[in-house]
Amino acid sequence: MSVRIAIDGKLPARAGLTAAALRKAAEFFADSSARRIHSPPWRQVEVHLLGDAESAAVNEEIMGHAGPTDVITQRYDAIPGEPDGLVGELFINTDCACREGAKRPRWSPARELLLYAAHGMDHLSGADDTTEAGYRRMRRRELAWMSRLAKMQKGRI
Q1: 102-130 CB burial, b ≥16 within 10 A, e <16
Q2: What is the CATH classification number for the domain harbouring 148?
Q3: Residue 83 belongs to what domain range?
Q4: Which residues contact 133 (CB under 8 A, 6 or more apart)?
Q5: What are the pLDDT digits (tens) for 109-147?
Q6: How many Cβ atoms are within 10 Å of 53's Cβ, its own excluded?
Q7: Is residue 157 a part of any domain in this protein?
Q8: Cα–Cα distance measured from residue 107 to residue 97, given in angstroms and rounded to the nearest whole number
Q9: Domains identified in the chain, total number
Q10: Tens of pLDDT along 21-51?
């Protein structure tokens, strides 16, 4: 995997995940999403870790929506003269991940945060969840990626 994953921000202790584990998972999800669309590999993805307030500001600025959300994505194609590969940004709401991950049985804030990373990478590769069918396809794919990642890590997510 040649994608460069940069983590910007801090993971709250209650997330139950280290930045190194998030980086490795993001690399795996980036590789999986690139293979899905048979695209050039991801060159770089910046993962911004935000709280509710920061997420609301980014959501308003980028999407034109009010309030915080789970994950927001931005994708940039290489400009002429740059190395081949896709560049993207994920804006992950850690407050939302901690809140939602704690509500689900047999789930955790760490898994919720990884789900947001997988979901963001899926969006970066062009997946769309604006219809019920699109949402279901994305969720199945993202959970399958998480399952493969857990098997590779011997169940440590």
Answers
A1: eeeeeebbbbbbbbbbbbbbbbbbebeee
A2: 3.40.390.30
A3: 4-152
A4: none
A5: 999 999 999 999 999 989 999 999 999 999 999 999 999
A6: 11
A7: no
A8: 11
A9: 1
A10: 999 999 999 989 888 886 667 789 999 999 9
